[in-house]
Write a structure and sequence with these properties.
The complex is a heterodimer. Chain A is α/β, with parallel strands linked by helices. Helices cover 33% and strands 20% of the residues of chain A. In chain B, helix 7 (241-254) links the parallel strand 10 (214-219) and strand 11. The chains are: A alpha/beta, B alpha/beta. Strand 9 (180-182) of chain A pairs antiparallel with strand 8 of chain B.
């Protein structure tokens, strides 16, 4: 009991008519949530965070000491005298609202998975996606590899990390994107094209494909507002099927896949396409560049030429990079290849639009 | 990553040397010899460690080759112990180069990262004007603010300020870059990897001034990373090894070589020592043709006719 002068007898609910249907706060059994940790502290205060629900609250040290009393389920009335209880009422309500103190008899709120998660690096160090300021291209990571035996969940991170070699810049004189120089063709690409990174679509490994589809759908819809072309960093090849449904809506899906041998099946000229770049080329070329199989692989300049040619004949409405297997050292080279192809494909999309 | 002990990789009771060449500690090299030394330092690499392991890896890979040893020698590794930072590593590397120059040898630096190239070039250009042939996927021309140190991305920018470096040929620039790096300054010409693939090795040789000693700096990333993956900043779309080998063979037969380096081999990122093996093959090509260099040094005024590619060194 905090107040030595207070009674140790619990109040009788029968004195209060309302308490018969709903227990008074004083009588309610409360317990400190297991998910709460001390996030930070300063002179005279601490910040507690509920890790499961992403809530946080700043408490004075005396209030923190009071909260600690609920490590075992306890009733407020057993801990503090009546006049103090009245003063504490707003704080108690706040602590319950922030899920620091819980009623063990009441089921807690269910955590809702966020649509997108933050990432350590943004593609080409581009600005973070802001739905109020649509850009020409929006990067979205889909670190999902449950549709194959390909280890691609870390591929978006690898592609973003490598892309820092190609930083996105704006010219100081006109604030327009500078673009990049392609030394292989001797041409500037993506001059004036804006770019942002929306992070990764949140993945709950083991969840049903249907629930993932819902989030992919929502994120792609959000990112495509304002006419932005989505650039999806997979993920295994299942990422293509997932994203394609949203991008093409109810229309017949039209997909052009760029494969390791350089083949690129192009549908009817003029038809809008979803361009999927299969980075399995990296694993194939890496295994043995002198092998007969490797001789059938296309060179980077061949691949770039095919992508550019595609942009001349068909509008490109979305691009993905999939199938980058991060097992072994091929992933590092595949990321380098992927960045070059992504920027080339974006240039092709600019030309096609 | 810890650098190997100086002179590590013992074999046959003594120090294992490049291609089994004579150990310079035991036998003084003849004038004009190609004098190899390892510089196991990667503090100048801004991306990743690992190039410090290259001298040992290249020496190991070289053991499968049979290369004439009459005009060749191995000075072992530069001892970087107790030396920290890029500036100190350059200083101690320069000491080895100075020793080789005093013996009238031609330095062959096995890096290490590319920042080390400054050490031999800064000394060589003090005695005569040189043409620098920079084989690299990158131009290494990032801004440098004039301090006593630089990293591997800035090294050519700093070298360009040296008065005795009167001509720079950058071969192999490629890929998507932030800016157009084809014009590095009045001394320099850039030949992109794509342009190199359209020219024969003989056409590339013609760009190298015949009357000026040439320093050849080979960043292994000039080779396509699917052939030579063991390097820290791979750029897809590079040259096949045979293209570089053909060019080096022509240079050794037709130009006076003032010095050579092979840098940025990273064994920690390599695939079954493939990259170290390619580095050894590049050096082998120069060494196998080194008798032409000795001839040029003995009879510098002869104006020997250009010896073009041998039948097996055709353009790919």
């Amino acid at each position: 009991m905090l107040d030595p002068g207070s009674s140790s007898t619990p109040p009788d609910p029968s004195f209060d008519a309302d308490a018969r249907t709903e227990p008074r706060d004083d009588d309610r059994l409360l317990v400190l949530s297991d998910d709460v940790v001390i996030e930070s502290e300063g002179p005279g205060y601490l910040v507690l965070a509920n890790l499961e629900l992403s809530t946080r609250v700043r408490l004075s040290r005396p209030l923190y000491e009071f909260v600690r009393l609920f490590r075992e389920p306890s009733r407020v009335a057993d801990l503090v005298p009546g006049e103090v209880r009245q003063r504490l009422k707003p704080q108690l309500e706040m602590l319950m609202a922030k899920h620091v103190l819980l009623d063990p008899d009441v089921e807690g709120p269910r955590r809702e998975l966020r649509l997108r998660s933050n990432v350590a690096y943004r593609f080409c160090n581009s600005p973070a996606f802001d739905p109020r300021s649509p850009t020409d291209f929006t990067i979205i990571g889909l670190p999902c590899d449950s549709e194959s035996d390909c280890d691609s969940r870390l591929a978006p991170e690898a592609l973003r990390r490598k892309s820092l070699d190609y930083p996105f810049r704006r010219a100081i004189e006109n604030n327009l994107p500078c673009g990049w120089f392609d030394a292989d063709t001797g041409r500037w690409i993506l001059k004036g094209a804006s770019l942002s990174d929306a992070g990764d679509i949140a993945i709950e490994h083991g969840e049903s494909q249907a629930s993932l589809f819902v989030r992919v759908d929502k994120v792609l819809e959000e990112c495509r507002q304002g006419g932005s072309t989505p650039i999806i960093l997979g993920g295994d090849r299942g990422a293509t099927e997932t994203a394609l449904k949203t991008v093409t809506g109810n229309g017949a899906p039209t997909i052009a896949r760029l494969r390791a041998d350089g083949s690129l099946a192009v549908p009817d000229i003029g038809k809008a396409i979803y361009l999927s770049i299969d980075l399995a080329i990296a694993s194939a070329a890496y295994s043995d560049p002198r092998s007969k199989a490797a001789e059938t692989l296309a060179t980077l300049s061949d691949l770039k030429e095919r992508v550019v040619a595609l942009g001349r004949t068909n509008p490109i409405i979305a691009i993905d990079l999939v199938g980058l297997d991060m097992r072994g050292d091929a992933g590092r080279l595949g990321a380098a290849l992927g960045c070059e192809l992504a920027l080339t494909a974006m240039e092709a999309a600019c030309g096609s639009s | 990553m810890a650098a190997p002990e100086p002179g590590a990789y013992p074999a046959d009771g003594g120090r294992a040397t490049l291609f089994g060449w004579p150990d310079a500690l035991a036998v003084s090299p003849q004038p004009g010899s190609l004098c190899a030394f390892g510089a196991p330092s990667d503090t100048g690499n801004a991306i990743s460690r690992g190039a410090a392991l290259a001298p040992a890896a290249v020496r190991k890979a070289s053991r499968k080759h049979d290369v004439p040893a009459e005009f060749a020698s191995d000075f072992g590794d530069v001892d970087f112990r107790g030396r920290t930072g890029s500036a100190q590593h350059l200083e101690v590397t320069a000491e080895t180069v100075r020793r080789i120059m005093e013996l009238k040898g031609i330095p062959l630096l096995i890096g290490g990262d590319h920042s080390l190239t400054f050490a031999p070039i800064s000394l060589l250009q003090e005695t005569r004007d040189i043409c620098l042939l920079w084989l690299d996927a990158h131009t290494d021309f990032s801004p440098w603010d004039g301090q006593e140190f630089h990293n591997h991305k800035q090294v050519l920018r700093r070298i360009e300020t040296l008065p005795g470096v009167t001509r720079i040929l950058q071969f192999g620039y490629r890929g998507v870059t932030v800016g157009d790096e084809r014009r590095l300054g009045p001394k320099s010409s850039v030949v992109t990897s794509a342009e190199m693939q359209c020219r024969s090795p003989s056409e590339l040789l013609e760009m190298v001034p015949p009357a000026m000693p040439c320093y050849i700096s080979i960043d292994i990333d000039v080779i396509d990373p699917f052939h030579a993956p063991g390097t820290s900043a791979p750029v897809p779309g590079g040259l096949v090894p045979d293209t570089v080998i053909a060019l080096l063979g022509l240079l050794a037969r037709n130009r006076t070589i003032a010095g050579v380096d092979v840098v940025e081999v990273n064994p920690a990122m390599d695939r079954k020592d493939d990259t170290a093996r390619i580095a050894a093959r590049l050096i082998e090509t120069l060494a196998a043709n080194w008798s032409f260099q000795i001839e040029r040094q003995r009879f510098p005024a002869n104006g020997a006719p250009e010896i073009q590619q041998s039948p097996k060194e055709t353009a790919p």
